[in-house]
Structure formats: structure tokens, C-alpha cells
Please model this.
Amino acid sequence: MRECDILVVGAGLSGVSAANHLSRLGEEDVVVLERLSDGPFNRYHRICGEAVSDRMFNMAGFEPSGVIRRVDRICIAFPGDIEINIPVSGQIVDRPSLISNIRDGCSADFVHATARGVTRDGDGFIVGLSDGSSIRCNKLVGADGAHSVVRRDVFGHVPQEVLPIVNNIVPGTGDGSLRFEVGGEYPGAYKWEFPSSDGMLSVGYIKGCGSVEGAVETGARNMVIGIPPSVVDGSCILVGDAACLANPLCFGGIGAALVSGRKAAEALSSGDVGRYQRWVDRDLMFDPHFMEAHKSFSEWGDEEISTAMEPFRKGYSLARGLMAMIRHPKWANIYFSCWIGFKRGW
Ligand SMILES: Cc1cc2nc3c(=O)[nH]c(=O)nc-3n(C[C@H](O)[C@H](O)[C@H](O)COP(=O)(O)OP(=O)(O)OC[C@H]3O[C@@H](n4cnc5c(N)ncnc54)[C@H](O)[C@@H]3O)c2cc1C
Model:
């Protein structure tokens, strides 16, 4: 049986971010497992809106790379012709290029293999692989996405919600904004329209509501939301989608994947693994209010949405936001969570 000090399962953004930071911290005995190779890997990592803010890159300690297009505004259209514009600073990335650039800075050994199951072995873990072999490690990072084997076997946690999301690539140029269309054909939810590569838009929504004309490529993937009660168990840490860290309102998960990879590496290398749990518990990015707002919002009809958003018909400002919270305290959490989520949750 192969042995290593730190094993990372999954070489998506959270996994390569962890591996990259472990290298920077001088951790030499690191193995990264990835079940997909080449074509399937690139296809898997292209079914997404691929929007990520400058702020998240900064927090994750990476320069933006693999950039397809800059974005400077989020535009949210509500029923009743109400539109909110939020200035932002970010980009649409080509994720396989970004992953490859981050991976180039790793000294870890990348192994093409599928983790089938995890068992405890003293203070360490044994990860069984699909070819019948296994790897023993002292420390384990679960970066294996929405259907994490590490989360299942070590934490026994089932995500609070699994949302099947369809993403289409359709012809169109957009206006450089990240556009969200709330309600209507997408009851209690929304459709997003992001600029993609030249002359194309990336259009997504929760499966089962709405449709998109002229789609030239379609993919579907599950988004998991609702962070487990614990994301650290002994020397095992969950990051990115394995920890269900994506924002439940704007579905931003790329930034959370990158930053959590960094935080996990720092916690493992410092010997104080618990600091990762403390970060997840305290950071506003993962506040439980987002999940509550998601649940309330998913029960809203168009009429309730337009009534709640009426105070912003002439545009959003902090003063209008505060006035709306005072006038409609029952929606205060939705106002607050939307503002923070769309501004800082991606
Ligand atoms: C349709 C859609 C659109 C989205 N749009 C956006 C967006 O615009 N902006 C944004 O910020 N977020 C977006 N997200 C969320 C974002 O894609 C995820 O939060 C992010 O991909 C999480 O990264 P990760 O590295 O944790 O997981 P993943 O990207 O899922 O990577 C996990 C890796 O682990 C590998 N793996 C899985 N199981 C095993 C195993 N058993 N053994 C070995 N390897 C394994 C997988 O092959 C994969 O390479 C979107 C999500 C969806 C579904």
C-alpha cells in the first residue's frame, strides 16, 4: 500500500488550490487523486457560469488567470420591470486553463485514480481506489465535489439540498454584466446569463423550470448547498463543494473553492487543523442566514417578489436598503443576504 503524509481527493479548483498552497508552505509529501483525465476532465470543468470576483482571487492568493472576459456589473431583473444594478469587479474564466495554471505551481504528485471509499486507520485514513489498491495518509483533504466520497465516509453528512442545474451555451454577446432574471418562468428561482467565449452566452437555471432557445451545448450538474455541522474531523478537512460551501443565493462556489483550498492547506501545515473549522464557522461568506434566505425566497411567487423589490424601483442604494428593512422587517434577511451574497459571495 502506498503511503503519503497528505492526500487530496479531487483536482478541481478546491483540490489544486489546496495542493498549490501546500507546496508554497513546503509540504513535500502530497498526493492528489483525480478520477477524470483530459477530455472528460475539461468537459466536467466547463459546465458552469465561470464567474469569479477579483476579491476571491485576492483572498485565495492567486492572480486571475484563464480570463475570458472582465465583468463590471451584476444586473438583477425582477418581476414588475424592477432592475437592480450592482457594480462589481471580476471575470469569466476558462476553468480548465485556470486549474492547469494553479496546478503548474504544485510540487504534489498527481495520480489518475478514483477514490471508492475511506476508512480510518489510527489517526490517519486509508483511501481505497477503484483498481483495488489503496493509499494510506496522515491527513486527508476531501476536494471531491458535490458527491464527495470523503464527506460520505468520514462525516456521514448528506447535503441539505441538491439542486440539479442546467447550463446552456447560446449565441449572444451580452453587455459585460452578470445578468439574473428572477421569477416568471423560474418560480422562486432565476435564470442567469453570463458572457462566455466570443459571441456566446452561458445561460443556466434549475432543471425543470424554463428553457432556452437556440442552445448549442447543454450540460447538467448538481449544486449542493447547506454546510455540514462540521467540516473538520481529526486530520480530515472538507473543501469546496465537498463542504457544500457555494453561496445558496447566487450559487458562487468557485471563489469559495479557491479560498477554502488555501485555508485548508494553512490549517494542515500549521498543525492547528481546527482553525479551518473556526474560519468556516465565523466567515460572513458562510453565514447560515444565506440558507434561510434561499428557503424563504424559493417559496415566493412573482407578486411577493415585486412587492418586496418595489423600494428599489429607482435603483439600489444603502439608504434605500436600510429603509426597506425598516418598512418590511419580515424581508430584512432576504434584503441583507441578497446584497451581501451577490456583492461578496462569488
Ligand atoms: C451549472 C453550474 C453553474 C455554476 N456557476 C458558477 C459560477 O458562475 N460561479 C461560481 O463561483 N460558481 C459556480 N458554480 C459552482 C462551482 O462550479 C462549484 O462550487 C465549484 O466547481 C466547486 O469546486 P470543487 O473543486 O470543490 O469541486 P469540483 O469542481 O466538482 O471538482 C471536484 C473534482 O474532484 C474529482 N472527483 C470527484 N470524485 C472523485 C473521486 N471519488 N476520486 C477522485 N476524484 C474525484 C472530480 O472529477 C473533479 O475534478 C456553478 C455550479 C453549477 C453546477
